[in-house]
Structures are given as C-alpha cells and as structure tokens.
Amino acid sequence: MITIKDIAEYYDTTQDHYRRWWNLKDSLSLHYGIWNENTKEFSESLENTNKVLLQFCNISESDNVLDAGCGVGGAAFFINERTNAQVTGISISENQIKLAKEMAIEKQKEDRINFLVMDFTKTTFQDQSFDVVWACESVCHASNKAEFINECYRLLKKDGRLILSDFFLPTEKQNDKNRWIDKWKQTWGVPNFVTSTYFTDELRNKGFSSVEEFDFTDRIRKSARRMYYASILGALPSELYNLFNPDVSKFAKSHYKSGFYQYKALQENLWKYKIVYAKKIG
C-alpha cells in the first residue's frame, strides 16, 4: 500500500529524473503536455496544459488560488504571470517546495505566490479561503479521493471553482492481464486510480454543481510516448547506477519503468486523461 510518506519520498528522490527527462529546470512542470495541430515543441505542450486549465476556470486578478499538489511551482507562476492572481502552492514534498520557494525569490514573486509543505486532503487553511482550487495530475496520489473533494468544498468560497486534470480508469473492472496499471502505480507512488464517473458522482454528492468532464487522452499521447522512449533510453544507465548504488531509494531505483508501464497501459486503453471542472454553489 502506497502511503503519504511513500508519495513524499517518491517526489523527493526522483526530482533529478524529472530534471533530466522532463526539462524541469526550464519548464518547472512535471505534468503531461497537451498537443494540438499547432504544437511543435514539447515545451509548448507543457504550457498548453496550463493554458487549457486556465481557460476552463477563468481566473482573474481578484481570485485567490490554491494549487493543490503544486510540484515545483510551474503552474503557480503561470497563473500569476497570466492573471496576477494570488496563488498558494502546496505539496508534501519538501524538495519541491524548497525549489519553488527559491524560484519565487528569483522571480521576485514572494508577495503574490506562496509555497507550503502541506497535505491537500488535510490543510490548515480557514473555511472559504479560496476562489479556485487547481490540481494538475495530483489527485491520483490521494488514497481517498472523497477526502480531497471534501477539503476542496470546505476551502472554496461561494461560486468557487475546482479545476483538475488527472488519470482515470475507463471502468472499475477491466482486463489488465499484464498488470500494467498496478506496476505503474507502484513505480509512480500512486495508491489508486478511480473512474471519472466515481469522481464526478462524489463531486455532485458533496454539493458541487456544473460538474463537467472532458477527455484529452488523444492530446497527451505524444507526451506518454515521450515518457516511454525515456524509459527505454534510461533502462541501462539506471540499472548500472542501481548496481553500484544498492542503497538507492526504492522509487529512484524503479522510476524509469513507470514510463514503460503507463504507455503500455495507454495502448490497451486502460486509462484516460481527463479534465474535470466543478463549481461550488452556496
């Protein structure tokens, strides 16, 4: 069973991998890139993901935004630069928050962007603190998705918006004879994946309205394939490193395999990439 301690360890110990494979230094992004007919570079696809999420939730300068599972701060900086909104980013990874804070100082954004080490299912913020909760590929790490939804509802003001992108199972029972999904979860620090139907039903049950989901699976396939190629190219050096460094963390040891597993699962239509939008009324 993947625990919150495991998830923090995953991100703390694999940050260098993202730096090498995902252009982390320049993009500050750990998410999949969304491609369209005009996208020419991988860096553009990463920015597209932020653009798409921003379009759905219509953030303005007066909004107070919570980036739940902020990574190293890429989305928080993007939101602020595009809208001048106040943004708070939270992550359970101390390494991520350390880098994000350093970048906030470098960009002279400390007055508008704040970063904290915090669990997004159990925050210390007051009720109705935010106009928007933004979660890009982070909710998959919540063991109990309903806890995340409950916390979002508590934190959002009246008419507040939740926008997220994440990985969802097409059905609760599917034939995964090679266990691609289980292998992916174990190498990626993910406790479980759920269906989008389960997730949107939970949103409505909690009291969210205007709940919508949008399938972007076909538009992230190039990113998934890029991760697959990275896993193939990284296999030999990773195994050699593991051989001479037997004490390396369990996630750092097997992380390169996640790129292989996620792509094999995608080829067999075992997961979908979706954007979910919901609004709190009352």
What is the CATH third-level topology name?
Rossmann fold
Structurally, how many domains make up the residues?
1
Strand order in the largest sheet: 3-2-1-4-5-7-6
Output the helix-strand order: HHHEHEHEEHEHHEHHE
Number of strands: 7
For the record, the CATH architecture stands as: 3-Layer(aba) Sandwich
Unreliable residue runs: none
Instruction: Indicate the structural class.
Output: alpha/beta
What does the overall shape look like? Answer: globular
CATH homologous superfamily assignment: Vaccinia Virus protein VP39
What is the overall number of helices? 10
CATH class: Alpha Beta
- Cα(first) to Cα(last) distance is 37 Å
Instruction: Name the helicity range.
Output: 40-55%
Strand content: 15-25%
Radius of gyration: 18 Å
- How does the major sheet shape up? 7 strands, mixed
Averaged pLDDT, please? 92
Structure in words:
The protein is an alpha/beta fold and 282 residues long. The chain is built from ten helices and seven strands. It has helices at residues 4-21, 24-27, 42-57, 74-83, 94-106, 145-155, 180-188, 196-206, 221-244, 250-267; strands spanning 64-68, 86-91, 113-117, 130-136, 156-168, 208-215, 272-280. Helix 1 crosses helix 10 (250-267) and helix 9 (221-244) runs antiparallel to helix 10 (250-267).
